[in-house]
Amino acid sequence: MDFLTNPLNLVIFFPLLGVLALLLMPSGKKDLLRWTAFLASLLTFGISIWVLTLFKSTDANLQLGLNIPWIQVAGWNINYATGVDGLSILLVLLTAFLSPISILSTWTAVEERVKDFMIFFLLLEVGMMGVFLAQDLFLFYIFWEFTLVPMYFLIGIWGGPQRIYAAVKFFLYTMAGSILMLIAVLWLGINQNSFSVPDLIARSGSIPADIQMWLFLAFAAAFAIKVPMWPLHSWLPDAHVQAPTAGSVILAGVLLKMGTYGFLRFNLPLFPQAAIKAAPWMAGLAVIGIIYGALVSYSQKDVKKLVAYSSVSHLGFVMLGLFALNPMGIQGGILQMINHGLSTGALFLLVGMIYERRHTREMDAFGGLWKVMPVYATLMLIVSLSSMGLPGLNGFVGEFTILLGAFGSQAIGSPWFAGVAAVGVILAAIYILYMFQKMFLGPLDKEENKKLKDLNWREIATLVPLLVFIFWIGLYPKPFFALMAPAVDNLVKIIQTASLALH
Amino acid sequence: MENSGLFFNLVPLIVFLPTVGLLINIIFGGRMSEKAIGTVASAASGLAFIVSLLLGYSLLASGSEAHVVPFAEWIKIGNLDIPWNFRVDTLSVTMMLVVSGVGTLIHIYAIGYMHEDVRFKDDVKRYGRFFVFLNLFIAMMMILVSGDSYLMLFVGWEGVGLCSFLLIGFWFEMDTLARPSWANSNAAKKAFIANRVGDFGFLLAAFTMFWYFGSLQFSEVFLKAEEVAASQPGVIMVITLFMLIGVTGKSAQIPLYVWLPDAMAGPTPVSALIHAATMVTAGVYLVTRSWALFSLVPDAQYVVALVGAITALFAATIAVGQYDIKKVLAYSTISQLGFMVAAVGMGAYVAGMFHLIAHAFFKALLFLSAGSIILGMERGHHHLANHGHADEHHEEVFDPGDMRNMGGLRKQMPVTFWLYMIGSLALAGIFPFAGFWSKDEILLDAAKNYSVVYVLLTIAAFLTAFYMGRQIWMVFFGKSRHAAAEHAQESPKVITVPLMVLAGASILGGALNLPYLHSLGQWLEHTIELAAEHGEEIRGYLSISWGGLNPVVALVSTLLALLAIGLSWLLYGRKPLQVGQIDPLKKMLGPLYTAFEKKYWVDEIYGALIINRYVDLARFLAEKVDWNFWHDWLHDSVIARFFRWFTKFLANPIDLGIIDAISNGLATLTKRSSTALRQLQNGFVRSYALSVLLGAVLILGYLLFK
User: Fold this and answer.
1) How many domains in chain A?
2) Helices A457-475 and A327-358: angle between axes, nearest 10 degrees
3) What are phi and psi of A309, to 5 degrees?
4) DSSP structural state of residue B8
5) Structural domain count of chain B
6) A492 to chain B, minimum CA–CA distance in Å?
7) What pTM was estimated for this model as a whole?
8) What is the pLDDT of residues A304-323, one digit of tens each?
């Protein structure tokens, strides 16, 4: 009974109830299916809020979890271990928050095989929650791999014309990294005699430095592909452009964060010495990603692709912050994960809305939309500004703290990284304003655009919750930082200890 | 601290009153009349002005020392603590008064101006949006000038940049002549991006500051300034020079000034408020605010002064060669901002602030009068159209702002004419108008310190008087060169009355800081330690006049101004320009004049050297590197082939048939229809799962039994 009523288990597995309900329903009743899935995800969000109320933000340790022996054969200690702390609480909330919003966005966009779509979507939610809450490496790996399956189908069945290519590429690409991670997981499990994350952190000092580096790299391979860090981003434009809107929202909003979260949860505390040594290199790749992603975004003709590449740039900021290895950088990095989920999620929703109306995403097909769709234009403007880091909106708080942290980071070792990354602030303005101008400003000269309808209430309702947080984090980020601060301080302490041992 | 009966705690209202105004107009604007919308917005700004007056009174009543009013926590991580505090001191209150004072007048003016503008442009519904943006601008500008830290200043700094973008692109679907075009939105984008380049400099200054000072709060930074200067001599130099990049962006100095002339695409009240009187002076404010840093690095000060002086002269020469009435004023603004930047660069903070205030009066007056002229011309043009004038059919696009279409307007628009005269005389620095006093103080300081700066500024001042003279003769004297000018009509009171207030301020503004009384200096002294007080040894080698008057400097500049006006009369007044006639100066100066006219081709040069290169690089990366090489070749050919081999290796013993489907290549998969997928899915993923499992088992087995 404990297992079923555990709040974290509820938040992980509640969507399965939705799946069960959906299975019992006839596939023809689309609205019933939609409402059921929406309700299931909404209740999951409610449970996540309940978890938040139970969560003690002053406590740096893992909370609310379970630790039950699970697979104990041949000297293996695999436990069903879960727990939430400051590193993951916001990501859990983000996942629970974005899921109902994404489902709401499919109301008219997904008309075929609604039942299957909703089932896969809820299964995906289970997987994502599991990834953020698992505290046993084996369990984590299972959830990690599990998320691939529903996402593969979401892209492959409901995607664009090149969906199969994109789905297979997404699958195989992510796999490639995961296998390396699996080897490292097994090495740890055997040699450290535990799969439990806290245990492994406590024992991390006993790993010889060179092996630590190899393990670090094996984990990094899986996570860097997921983030994606430059130059491992090649799967991203395909997956994003082909995925249905809801898939893109979740892909950008949550799945990419699994990569950055992996670095935060595993690479930094499990292999702190390797992390310190790798910091300048990781920061270097992050900075290249920031600049490269921004440049490549600017040259896109398809607005969805532009947004997809902008993720490479934005996630570069997150990685730069994490590998600053100081409180400012890491807290900024975590906040920026959330910010990116909100802003880029909203951007994909907005792109989906115009695609539903015009069946094209070529920016050249638009122009002057502000005249016919003022509400749409205003919302797009706010989200765009958030994405380019305007003070007062969420993106700025994250970017500023990341850059400030990285600028003086000892681990990175030089202000040049942050200095060059700050150029990304200019480049972001260039590609985002270019996109905004192409679509919304200029003359309204295409006949097809002159009769476009502005957003309806359902569409506004999907965006408003995102906007609330875009403003909230921008104006008053304190509660968000407060949730993560003790856990981050703890993490920084682990790294500092390792740093002392290193010198 | 005895604060009862004082109003310091009201300071958040200067931000929130305009915010309330814009919220009212967003929520109820759709159901309100134009008058009501304009009144709400003007009242919001006007009330902010009253609050600013109360704050000024409170300062005077309490000894004029700075007050910090805590308001909210913002960003706090570890030792990074950036609250949103308001700073009420003589400098910030001065800026608040200018922003809300001039701002309110311009709001009132805009009630009349936009009423006509939205009708000429045929989109009446956009009226309310204008006032929302205008109120937002006031709120952001207030955050900028009242923030107590560099980061709060930056919040406002970027916020006003956004408002500038929105308002330049207010008529985003057309160009300045209301033809369908990308021109206005290009101008808006250009302004935002050029400013972002400046913001990049600002951010780096802030980062450096934080890591060496441990804070971004003004008081803490200034307190530590000398200590840091002693231990890390280069740091303050770096910070101030990065700030200078920000200044060149926001205050339109070389090399980032290029956005400001294009910004004239915005409606005229915007040009007056944002792009002449207030926002563009933010850079001057930043340097003045950071006096404690700049005063420690004379070399950086010299660079700032030089950038300002060169910009002042450079822009003045371009202004001489322009035909668009607003373009002349735009280059004039860049030039005058150059004067201010040069002043604060030299450490003449009071002179710089004095000129900032005086300039806000007379340049707002000039822009708004120019707007009145343009509306007058439009009315004339409309009159022609309505009365089926013969010219109408073979007329090309009519440009109401082109001075070559004007002429003789003093008869049709007498009120505007006199207002424009006052503004021009003040700008030209003629005694006793405001500009005379403020410009003279800058020249005097320059003469004492840097002769190069003095010479550059004096020539610029000469040219200022010349181009204003040229404008007056071309616009108001001679005969109409276009039928629209003949039928031009005077503007209504809602437009001319705010102008009269500004005209009064332009006449009397000099009284703010008369020589030897130096009231402004005494007021600002509570915030800025003036060099004269401190002794020259401590604050470098600069000696600042502290509001003196040197008869030689004053005489030279006055004589030069009169000479320039006389010269302009010889060229444009004695024999007025005829329709189609080439500018007489062009005959005299030849290619040099062409260079002025073409703005030294700076836009073209930037386009060829920077913008096109950027576009090429982005395209090369996106198409060749990222797509052709990385995506198509490496992944689809090299890696995909490896994967086919790898999966085959993993799954060989299990399920040959299905794996073969992958082995056939991703290319064939791509072409399959969704029905094919349905058959594939089950098999494919199951086989995948199997292969992962098998792989895991193999590895496990190896590890266990090795």
Assistant:
1) 1
2) 160
3) -65, -30
4) G
5) 1
6) 11
7) 0.91
8) 999 999 999 999 999 999 99
